[in-house]
Design a protein that fits this description.
- It is a single chain.
- This protein is mainly alpha-helical.
- It contains 5 helices and 4 strands, in the order E-E-H-E-H-E-H-H-H.
- A hairpin with a 2-residue loop joins strand 1 and strand 2.
- The N and C termini lie far apart (37 Å).
- The C terminus is likely disordered.
């Protein structure tokens, strides 16, 4: 985390948290040839809903960075599946990202939400094409 951990020098390079330059590295992954990308953005939130001001404020940087990276990806942004908390989950997440309690509940909710994504046809299609771009998704619900 920038500001929490000191940068590390490795030879002539200074290594810092990747979030300083790119929140999810979507633009880098697309630029360097990834065909399909699943970007997990835990500090963002899905656009529907209106979280409390404190959550919007804390997450605004990650949200803006994700939108900027998707714009940089251009037409290739269609090859990116962004997974982030739903607005209604943010109360459970809280505003202290360094806390040590309650993380098991956040992890369980994230697992449940991510599994629920797979019921959407567009997400199922995306995942099927990521596994084998030559094979269309099966319509039998097992894809």
């Amino acid at each position: 985390m920038p500001g929490f951990y000191e940068p590390v020098r490795l030879g002539r390079r200074l290594l810092v948290d990747g979030g300083v330059r790119s929140s999810a590295s979507i633009d880098y992954a697309v630029r360097y040839g990834c065909n399909r990308l699943i970007a997990v953005v835990p500090l963002g939130h899905e656009p529907p809903g209106r979280p409390r001001l404190s959550h919007r404020f804390i997450r605004s940087t990650a949200m803006a960075a994700t939108r900027r990276e998707l714009r940089r990806a251009g037409d290739r942004a269609r090859d990116v599946l962004v997974i982030q908390p739903a607005a209604e989950d943010l109360a459970l997440h809280g505003t202290n990202f360094l806390r040590s309690d309650g993380n098991d509940e956040v992890a369980e909710r994230a697992h449940h939400r991510t599994r629920m994504l797979t019921v959407h046809d567009d997400v199922r299609r995306f995942l099927a094409e990521a596994q084998d771009p030559e094979s269309p998704i099966s319509g039998d619900g097992r894809g």
